[in-house]
Automatic annotation (TrEMBL):
It catalyses: ATP + protein L-histidine = ADP + protein N-phospho-L-histidine. It is an enzyme of class 2 (transferase). This is histidine kinase. The keyword Transferase applies. Keywords: Kinase, Transferase, Two-component regulatory system. It holds the Pfam family HATPase_c. Residues 1-83 form the Histidine kinase domain. Residues 79-100 are annotated as: Disordered.
Length: 100
């Protein structure tokens, strides 16, 4: 995993050296309900990447993948931000936090 500032935002990248994906699989990778051929024994819905992309795009960002058969995959998230933005301050530790 790596990260850097890029074009007024931040870019995060995760890469692996697994089996990768064929080009036709990358084309549908972010569609809801799509599961890889190797997911037969797993109890998932194929919604993870579709939801991740949707949430990232709702924030003005992007999620992309690059994969090559036999060479692994690389996922890149870009989120907008500014150089002077930082984490939001949390509540004062002495202040009561309202519970819903």
């Amino acid at each position: 995993m790596s990260g850097w500032r890029d074009n007024g935002g931040v870019c995060l990248e995760v890469a692996d050296d697994g089996d990768g994906l064929a080009p036709q699989d990358i084309a549908v990778l972010f569609q809801p309900g799509v599961r890889g051929d190797n997911a037969d024994d797993q109890k998932d819905t194929g919604m993870g990447l579709a939801l991740a992309r949707s949430m990232i795009e709702a924030q003005g960002g992007s999620l992309a993948a690059g994969c090559a058969p036999g060479r692994g995959c690389r996922f890149r998230v870009w989120l907008p931000g500014s150089a002077d933005s930082g984490p939001s301050p949390g509540p004062d530790p002495g202040e009561a936090v309202q519970q819903p």
